[in-house]
Known about the structure:
Helix content is 41%, strand content 16%. By secondary structure, it is of the alpha/beta class. It has one domain: Metal-dependent hydrolases (TIM Barrel, Alpha-Beta Barrel). It has an 8-stranded parallel sheet with strand order 1-2-3-4-5-6-7-8. Helix 7 (202-210) packs across helix 8. The longest helix has 17 residues, at 123-139.
Amino acid sequence: MEPSSGAGTTRWTDSHCHLQYASEDGGVAAVLARAERAGVSRMICVGTDLASSRLAVEMAARQSEVVRPAAEVYATVGMHPHDALAGADGIEALLAELEGQGGGRVVAVGECGLDYHYDNSPRAAQREVFARQVAIANAHDLPIVVHTREALTDTLSILESEGVPARTIFHCFTGGPADAGRCLEIGGYLSFSGIVTFTNADDVREAVKVCPRDRLLIETDSPYLTPVPYRGRTNEPTYVPFVGAAVARSKGLPPEEVAEVTSENATAAFRLVGD
């Protein structure tokens, strides 16, 4: 049974998802159709290495060719800190290749950053590859999608030393109000995921409260972090209205207003086009 979000005419934007992994339950076409029925009209499909970045670009291109697409799909290209040992040369080459073809609906560099929780790549390599991708984003006038886990001080230091991209998105924000303030101080957007619905996420909900309306984004990070009340299922963009509803409760706003505000912010942050 599909979730009933009361979408009506409300339209949502999922600012961070990984459609590349939507192989179950009918595949990508079914995921997009379910998202449309839930009122999700735009999705940012995020790359985490060279292969997934190419897949994101291909998905966005295919979706743009549909006469009446279920939803607008855009792509990002980036190297996740877990894969930092692969370097960023491939990402830079891919961007150059796509620019020669008109851009390929690429709207950001990332997901990239630092992850000191898992340390799947040496920290020195993480820092080097993240700094390189910040430089790439600046060179191409693209926003950057930042993954930071237990590494905010180094993350901010690298952003500031390389030059903070004009549009910097802190994806899946998990900090409290103090960390939110540090990210907002450099002009960042805070993107909240299904974690905001979790019982033990009071700090994240407090961060929502201090986030200005014009710096607020919502995401699923699907197929991960399925929001309450659907935890245990594979996440997908269909569930972004439940993230939005939790954000709305924390902000004391109607969900419809959160949908409008966060969609407007996604348009500004990623320079989206289309309906």
